[in-house]
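Input.
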Amino acid sequence: MLAAVATGHACRYTVRDVGFADLGNERYTFYCFVDDQVPGARVDQLGQAAAVLFGDANVQFQLINLAKGDHPQAKHLAKRKPGVPAGLLLSPAGELAWPVNFPAAKPDNPEWSFLSSVISSPTRDELIEKLIPAYAVILFVEGTDAAQTKRARTAVDDAIKAITPLMPQMPKPVDHPPEVVVVPTKRVAAESVLLWSLGLDAEPVPEPQAVVLMGRGRRVGQPLRGGLVTRSELQEAMAVVGQDCECGLDRVWMQGERFPLSWGRAERTAAYAELGFDPDNPQVKAEISRIISRGPNSRPTGTATSNHFEQLSLGYSEELIEFNLEPEALSEAEPEPEPVAEAKPVELEPEPAALGQANTVWWTLGFIAVATLAGGGLLLLRRSGN
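Output.
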């Protein structure tokens, strides 16, 4: 009976599960700046394309006509050519901005190409395809230094080999092991929006870079560069992905930056089939939001200061078990408290919670003892009658 109670109240979500939730408070903002020299037909086409492209994206669109007045974000733009739209992507926290240039070439639909570059790219499409079934994905950006890049890639492969045998021991096993998505140096410029959003260098540099991703494009831990791309660092981040969300884990591991992406019906269907629940369900979002808000929130430093991987390798796990008293038992155990103006959450008052758990355990043990004595008495009566 105690095992049944514990199972019923254990957290049903892992850190990876939480990574699939979109709580709606992490939206990028894309400012599209125009002036009176931009043709009205082009402005209309920009609005129509934005309605289609950003409808399922974690990016909100704002069209700004600078001819009607200056805008505070326009200062982040480089020299703007009159009559040509200019874009600026602002991070969810509003601290970082990245300019997006209107296509200089003449594609068939430049407005569509301009806006789609904000939420889509070859590497992002590959990441989304792999993130849904895989335990996690390591995004590896090659550096111009061949020796450093080779060493870092070996560390990536070794980390995946080390975490894969431990996956069956996790609270919610995942069949698909971690994967790697590589950005060659020649494609770094084309993936500038992706790399910028994850805190990586958006131009070719000598040092290789790596970052662990999970769920709906969420970053796990800090981006790693050069000599910090080691097996232990990557193991640390990937071990966190398999943890139970109700353990004493820093909630900031579940709140890493997400890259701009579109998450449409196909992705939602595939995620539902993989997870066994709908991460876009309002009730699920509310529960995950509660889980994130009630835990510790210290920010990781990007170094292997905790022992998540060691705990995982030893089969370690933590679970929060809650016992709820029946109304009758509650009325007998203690008088009904006087109403107060503002009640505090139960989890912030450990003593009553511990008392409730102890009472439930004693009631359960007493019930088992009574049932045992009653069964023994019936058996003796039956034997004496025979």
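Residues 1-10, 298-319, 327-358 have pLDDT under 50 and may be disordered.
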